[in-house]
Amino acid sequence: MTEQILRIENLHKSFGDLEVLKGVDLVVRKGEVVVVIGRSGSGKSTMLRCINLLEMPNQGLIHFRDERFDREFAFDGRHRPKASDMQQLRTHIGMVFQHFNLWPHLTARDNVSLALRRVLKMPVKEADARAAQQLERIGLADKVNAYPSMLSGGQQQRVAIARALALDPAIMLFDEATSALDPELVAGVLEEMRRLANEGMTMLVVTHEMGFAREVGDRLVFMNRGVIVEEGPARDIINAPQHPETQEFLRSIIH
Ligand code: ADP
Ligand code: MG
User: Fold this and answer.
1) How far is the CA of 123 from the centre of ligand 2 (A)?
2) Does residue 45 have its Cβ closer than 6 Å to ligand 1?
């Protein structure tokens, strides 16, 4: 068995009276691409946000492990993990959101460079150089000095991906990274994600792109009302879903 990068056990998260995650268990192994599907409101984003502690789970456990950082976070709804541990965890987890969350007043390079300076405390010169290099790698060499408003949605999302990758994360989380894009721009971003997967990046991907799920996903996870109701090899789940809720969901999105 390949080593686990991420293990989630019995994860619970409520917002007031609304229990959004009701005991999620999930393991992601090194080099694996795990695709998460499920209805809107089923808790997919909340799960990703809990993983890098943008939201504090109420109960459960998150274990992150790679060569550089190995830490188990246990939650009881009262105690917060140590700030330095949370900070460190986040440097190893790259996250890409539906809305790119770029700074509008900063160029592509500065958006990436700022993350390096803030998160890794990298000196400006080194951060700028690494940022330019990362943008180049993602096919945006000619856009380093462009502001987000001068870029297409697809290019903006690739800047956001470059920003996450620049930190050299052990795992990348994608939260519907293509759903805010114009249809003709979706393929380019999916292509970038596919390339990353082929390079061996460990990825946890929330998406409705079933073509991507089928071709790139090693494992497909169906989430419903705050729990994972079914998971398995992507092709198996898509071709022969076992759970009635999975069957119904897949019918509703595959025409
Ligand atoms: P998904 O990503 O699967 O669409 P979410 O995780 O975004 O689902 O949301 C799950 C539920 O949690 C929804 O009912 C949503 O309204 C609620 N929710 C998400 N974030 C918050 C929040 N910060 N405060 C209150 N409710 C929230
Ligand atoms: Mg969501």
Assistant:
1) 35
2) yes
Around Cβ 12, how many Cβ atoms within 10 Å? Answer: 18
Neighbouring residues of 82: CB distance < 8 A, sequence distance ≥ 6 = none
CA atoms within 13 A on the CB side of 79: 8
Q: The whole model's pTM is what?
A: 0.95
Question: Do residues 219 and 15 lie in contact, with contact meaning Cβ atoms separated by under 8 Å?
Answer: no
| Residue bearing the CA closest to ligand 1, atom 16 | 41
pLDDT tens sequence across 27-45? 999 999 999 999 999 999 9
- Counting ligands in written order, which one lies closest to the CA of residue 41? 1
Ligand 1 atom at shortest distance from the alpha carbon of 176: 2
| Cα–Cα distance list, 233 to 33, 109, 219 (Å) | 11, 38, 4
